[in-house]
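Fold sample X.
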Amino acid sequence: MMDQKTYVPRQPRVVAIGGGTGLSTMLRGLKKYTSRITAIVTVADDGGGSGVLREELGMLPPGDVRNCICALANTEPTMEQLMNYRFHDGRLSGQSLGNLMLAALDDLSDSFEEAVRRMSDVLAITGRVLPVSNENVNLVAEFDDGSSVVGESKIYGVKHGTDKRIERVRLVPERPAPVPEALDAIAHADLLVIGPGSLYTSIMPNLITRDIAKAVADSKALKVYVLNVMTQDGETEGYTASDHIKALFDHSGERLFNLCLANSLPIPESLRERYAREGAEPVKLDAEALQKLGVEVFHAPVAKFSVEHVRHDPETLARELMWIYRARAETQVYG
């Protein structure tokens, strides 16, 4: 009989927590390694087409969830194009077809979670996508000058171009109830990944949902934080790696992880200059501060460059995460 402590599942149960484009990008790579994926997605977005549907229909924001469903979908390219197609004219201008489909399913279902499951079934996705909560929440940012703003989409406008620093974010109502399946997935995960994504608006809303941070801290999974490659204008200007991690630990009240995956590729000068004009720069790895936080950093070439943007490369990111998992999994205990 194989020793329980050295058993490494061929297809590990992976839980990924976040939102925005970062989470969906990573999922595209992870699904090539395992079908046992659970994506736990923020529901605090109130901007763009999601914000319009949220305001007019009273539903939870579908955009981040839709992106994750599309990332895990096993469909023809045409279907993915349809899901992400945005109307350009009339009252539907700015809306994606996928958002409207989720809106219809939400109307036909008893909860947003059920609507997400039904769309996931239609598209035969690998794994599953869960909203972190079924409750209608708003994100509040409090700044170090004593000011505050309600609404995820408004944080950039209040902070951009100022010396303000986000001191705390919270949800209204505070500590909403999580989807039970999210807690169960975290408890049974083999590999738990936090990020990549916007620190305060994509990752943090999940962790300040009731019981989520404690479930992450208590999980026996191998836990890895994927550090953003660049700081984010209007959110994390001037933040080092330890600033990101300290904010996560402070908000959750837990020491959530001890491993961090960071990009090792140098950023092309043309992109550095472009981001600098927006007040962003590569996230600096302050090794001494990270050591004091008890976080070990893995360096890997996980960035991908285009003419305009720096992003994580989905295939490389997934490969490096699985390498870390395989290399360290013998120290974990699986049921």
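Fold sample Y, listed below.
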Amino acid sequence: MAEIELGEVQTAFAEIVWKNEPVSSGELVKICRTELDWKKSTTYTVLRKLCEKGIFKNVDGIVSSVMSREQFYSAKSEKFVEDTFNGSLPQFIAAFMSGKKITEKEADEIQKLIDDFKGGKK
């Protein structure tokens, strides 16, 4: 599994790649210059690091994801629950919900997720 910890800069870069993929490395340099005020070397350095982490790949100058945005954030969430709550989803939910109110619609959506997982739909 890819290393799922990214700093703020790497996360901003990853979001750009996910939004634009597949994207040529030259176009990615232009986007990063515009959106992040980066030089070409910075773009290639961050790209290389995220490729080494197994999140992206750069094949023949075309950058695309190995791990989708959804897979990345899912893995990051799983690691957080594992590290912080010994892998206990009920403990995480209890801590997250502590002192919060949810709407009936939110409760219904959560119940549907639970029912779908129990029924093997996910």
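Sample Y note: The two ends are 21 Å apart (CA to CA).
Also: The helical segments are 8-20, 25-36, 40-52, 69-85, 89-97, 104-118.
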